[in-house]
Write a structure and sequence with these properties.
The complex is a heterodimer.
Chain A: E1 7-21, E2 28-42, E3 46-50, H1 57-65, E4 72-77, E5 80-81, H2 87-94, E6 97-100, H3 114-125, H4 130-143, H5 160-172, E7 178-182, H6 190-207, E8 210-215, H7 218-224, E9 227-232, E10 235-241, H8 242-247, H9 252-260, H10 300-304, E11 310-311, E12 316-318, H11 326-330, H12 334-338
Parallel strand pairs in A: 3-8, 3-9, 6-7, 7-8
Antiparallel strand pairs in A: 1-2, 1-4, 4-5, 9-10, 10-12, 11-12
Helix pairs in contact in A: 3-5, 4-5, 5-6
Chain B: E1 8-20, E2 26-38, E3 42-46, H1 53-60, E4 69-78, E5 81-82, H2 88-97, E6 99-102, H3 106-109, H4 116-128, H5 132-145, H6 151-155, H7 164-176, E7 182-186, H8 194-211, E8 214-219, H9 222-228, E9 231-236, E10 239-245, H10 246-251, H11 256-264, H12 303-307, E11 313-316, E12 319-321, H13 334-344
Parallel strand pairs in B: 3-8, 3-9, 6-7, 7-8
Antiparallel strand pairs in B: 1-2, 1-4, 4-5, 9-10, 10-12, 11-12
Helix pairs in contact in B: 4-5, 5-7, 7-8, 11-13
The chains are: A alpha/beta, B alpha/beta.
């Protein structure tokens, strides 16, 4: 596949902090949900964001849409800065970006008929007449593989997979360019999951959509993405093309993630990198590299300094001291002993 | 301890659990399920939501809410004892003592207003009739056993103070507290992150070996099945449609549903752009078709499939399938067939 290099979205040094009250001393601290993230999304591609719960992947998606306000940093969509736009100006931009949520039960208003649910964004963002809207709704519901009768029904009359199709129809209603899909298939059975993934890929081809696809499921991410970013405690620890990242994962966390997926593999037992423990609390993340508490290769420097995301090869960037230039480590010779 | 005895621990025969859902509609959630679990064995029960796998496990523990649900037929024997004839009082001894349980959602299955200590000790005292002090000692040992680093501290914490993985470890400690013969785990890792999932699965298998018990693992994740189970039961529409040793099932699936299920898993190796999918949805349990319940979604469906419901038939030792196809003249190899379809996409 040819590389599509036209930039659609650029995020630089984005931070989203939430104030939290810690119980003990009533001291106020911040939870760094998104902590200095820089990334680019190209037109027509699918960028997968993968991470465990608490890694900040959903907050990242919401911040880009400004459903959550960024604390610091820039969000540039099609050349326009949107991090400081007023609500009214933001509305104009938002008809280019839509979102699909995980929970097909919670994200559809139970008291609205399907046609009203899909009509809402059209009313909000376009000036189509009533008849035009009706036609558009019909066209959309067929595009996502449901029949016209569905329009008169309420959400509870549908299964999870069908509801997710309705959510997709709503997201597509105003011809957006960019869709953020936040765990869109996680609540579905496997056989239904693949239907929805196939649908999303077909629609991408047909409408030239760009996806930011957020998921905890590495197999799903691999299937749908062109490039993948791995998040850990609010930061990107590795980003690269799908092929390179899955074939040759660099960051110890990426390696551990890939090796902990249960797979069907009766002949050659693959190398297993078990990591102990769980994600530390994002309110009180470890100093230095956030992963050092669970990393089997942690060195002294990892406990002191925070690694930056750097180019490792043409296709991959990684934030890990294992891959830093030798000179950096030479400057601190003590740390060589640890390796 | 790898050698599996042929001694049967649990035997379920022709189990039928129906739910009344109003207007004389009856949902046949479990409709004639028979299987057994040997001592020391891990058996996986797989299926999509609505296939009846959870109702099967709840029936074994006699936890079906009645009404609307009712066990209308069949038998469940644990170590030769007929559980369906037990009174509620006797059943309470069985739960937690002979059968340990782990559920999907560790947050809702622990009581939020009691400390871990109380919840762990409660079950130990109830079943073992030992002093509070001894029970506390036992609780500490158990927490250590399930890999909790600072058991003293955790004993005095409430469920909300623990992470998802920690809570599931506590649940396993409670489930194992009375050396159960059978551990029923209903989607035990579905709510957990992958890195934690791997730890919890390892822990479950370790506990099974050290306590010499058997596991009935209910899951929808074929990857988890491949890594943990000895034998697999595939459920669809309230029935078992295929049963085989784990390797046999993955390498030589006979039921089109099993084969399709295996194909729909997005794998890390395959590079096809389109995922094979199964069209349609699981039929609702009150409106099963007359013939095979999978016929409407099956790519190999024939006339006979819509006319007569297939029975479980034997393929080889321990491998059974509920499908007409393998028993037709010149029956084709579904596994082979489907694999070549995948390759050509």
């Amino acid at each position: 596949m040819e590389k599509k290099q036209e930039v659609l979205l650029e995020v630089s040094n984005l931070r989203t902090y939430f104030p939290v009250k810690t119980n003990k001393l009533r001291k106020k601290t911040v939870l760094k949900a998104v902590d200095d993230i820089t990334l680019t999304v190209f037109k027509g591609e699918t960028l997968g964001i993968v991470g465990e719960s608490g890694s900040g992947k959903s907050t990242l998606g919401r911040t880009i849409l400004r459903l959550v306000e960024p604390t610091e940093g820039e969000i540039v969509f099609e050349g326009q800065h949107i991090e400081n736009l007023k609500l009214r100006e933001l509305q104009v931009i938002r008809n280019q970006m839509q979102v699909i949520f995980q929970d097909p039960f919670g994200s559809l208003n139970p008291r609205m008929r399907i046609e009203e649910i899909i009509e809402e964004p059209i009313k909000m963002h376009t000036r189509l007449s009533k008849i035009e809207r009706k036609n558009r709704i019909k066209e959309l519901i067929e595009k996502v593989g449901l029949s016209e009768e569905a329009l008169k029904k309420f959400p509870h009359e549908f299964s999870g997979g069908q509801r997710q199709r309705i959510g997709i129809a709503r997201a597509l209603a105003i011809n957006p360019k960019f869709i953020i899909a936040d765990e869109p298939v996680s609540a579905l059975d496997v056989s239904i999951q693949s239907q929805v993934l196939n649908l999303m890929m077909d629609l991408q081809d047909e409408f030239h959509l760009t996806y930011l696809f957020i998921s905890h499921d590495l197999s799903v991410i691999k299937h749908i993405s062109d490039r993948v970013a791995v998040m850990y405690l609010g930061r990107i620890v590795e980003i690269g093309t799908k092929e390179s990242l899955y074939k040759n994962p660099l960051h110890p966390y990426t390696k551990a993630l890939l090796s902990s997926i249960p797979v069907v593999d009766f002949e050659n037992k693959r190398e297993e990198i078990m990591i102990s423990g769980e994600l530390p609390s994002p309110v009180d993340p470890p100093v230095g590299c956030a992963f050092h508490t669970r990393c089997p290769f942690a060195m002294d420097i990892c406990r002191l300094k925070r690694p930056q995301l750097k180019d490792k090869n043409e296709d991959q960037q990684v934030a890990c001291f294992l891959y830093e230039e030798e000179q950096t480590i030479e400057r601190e010779p003590n740390h060589l002993v640890e390796i | 301890m790898k050698q599996l005895g042929k001694e049967k621990l649990l035997e379920v025969k022709d189990l039928k659990v129906y739910f009344e859902i109003g207007h004389d509609k009856i949902a046949k959630a479990v409709d004639g399920v028979s299987f057994s679990i040997n001592k020391g064995e891990t058996v996986a029960l797989v299926g999509e939501s609505g296939s009846g796998k959870s109702v099967t496990s709840l029936s074994i523990m006699r936890l079906i809410p009645t009404p609307p649900g009712k066990i209308v037929g069949g038998s469940i024997e644990l170590d030769g004892q007929d559980l369906l004839s037990y009174t509620e009082k006797n059943m309470r001894k069985v739960r937690g003592e002979d059968i340990g349980m782990i559920f999907q959602e560790p947050m809702t299955s622990l009581d939020p207003v009691f400390k871990i200590e109380n919840q762990l000790i409660e079950s130990i005292i109830y079943h073992q009739r030992i002093s509070k002090k001894e029970a506390k000692q036992r609780a500490l040992e158990l927490l250590q056993l399930v890999g909790i680093a600072n058991p003293e501290k955790v004993l005095h914490e409430y469920p909300h103070q623990l992470s998802g993985g920690m809570r599931q470890r506590v649940m396993i400690a409670i489930a194992m507290s009375n050396n159960p013969k059978l551990l029923i785990a209903d989607e035990p890792t579905t709510a957990l992150d992958v890195t934690v999932q791997a730890q919890i699965l390892k822990l479950m298998l370790k506990m099974k070996d050290s306590f010499n018990s058997s596991i009935l693992l209910i899951t929808h994740d074929m990857g988890v099945v491949a890594e943990t189970a000895d034998r697999v039961l595939v459920m669809y529409g309230g029935q078992i449609v295929e049963e085989a040793q784990v390797k046999e099932l993955f390498l030589n699936p006979k039921h089109p549903y099993t084969a399709a299920l295996l194909r729909t898993i997005p794998s890390l190796e395959q590079n096809t752009r389109r995922l094979p999918s199964i069209p349609g949805n699981v039929p609702p349990a009150h409106k099963f078709p007359k013939g095979c319940r999978f016929a409407d979604r099956c790519e190999f469906a024939m006339d006979i499939c819509r006319e007569s419901a297939p029975a479980l038939g034997r393929i080889s030792d321990g491998h059974q399938v509920r499908c007409h196809l393998p028993f037709m003249k010149g029956g084709q190899e579904i596994g082979e067939e489907t694999r070549s379809i995948t390759g050509s996409v």
